[in-house]
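Our working data are protein records whose layout never changes between entries. Instead of coordinates, the fold is spelled out as a row of discrete tokens. Here is such a record, shown just as it appears in the course material:
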Amino acid sequence: MKVLGIPACAFINSGFVDTSRTFPHDAAKYPFSYEMLRSSDVEAWSSLGFEVGAHTVNHVDLGECTIEVANHEIVECGQDLEKMIGKPVDLFSFPYGRPDNINALTRHIIQTAGYIALFSAHGGFIGPNTKSYDIPRGGANYESSPVYCLLQIEGLTLSQIGAKLRRICTRSTEVA
């Protein structure tokens, strides 16, 4: 990504860095555990010019936890990551990313904690009406094909491509 000039942000759960913890969703899906990031990995990512964003300390569901827990998870994650990279962390993405995984109170904590943007994962693309505290995010991992990644970068979904192809096919059969 660096060579191609593609910007990226890693949203990191600070409570998993430098540990052997396993995310519950990974433990349920895989018979093995992934190695967690080390502080040096986070520092290296940042030094390459990529963004580091907060994602709570322990990957909690902000729509279900108490306000006290949410405040701790939101504020401490940013502080932990700032210590690792030596610069402000002002982007936040809430775990699970669906509308019911956050509420007005936790959104307010994110805003008052100094984050300038909040990312979700409930679909959509960035456009002129996108609000800074409701930015859709797309994810990619080792299972993502290069074509999928390129489509995400270009802001295209397979359903959009399919709809366009159906319109083209409908027009060509109408003309014939």
Summary: The mean pLDDT is 88. The helical segments are 24-29, 39-47, 67-85, 104-112, 146-154, 158-175.
